[in-house]
Design brief:
alpha+beta; Ubiquitin-like (UB roll); 3 helices; 5 strands
Length: 98
Amino acid sequence: MIRVVLPAHLRTLARVSGTVELAVAEPITQRSVLDTLEAAYPMLRGTIRDAVTQERRPFIRFFACGQDLSDDPLDDPLPPEVIQGKEPFRVIGAMAGG
């Protein structure tokens, strides 16, 4: 099982509390995790990625094992710790301001 941590506003929208656990088909990549997440929680479609282009929305970042994966290719395998369920895949709402 892949564990996904969502920001509070997306947990509210998806009506979940805490970490989401997903059975993701291999290969386990950012794309496959996000596809599975959106299939399980259709109300999240278009909130994390653009519904048409499938590109990451501005101010959304992806992290795993303390690394920012936001600019990595979507089809690169996730770290083994995420695949093994030891570490979560984190969706973070980035902050901006001045």
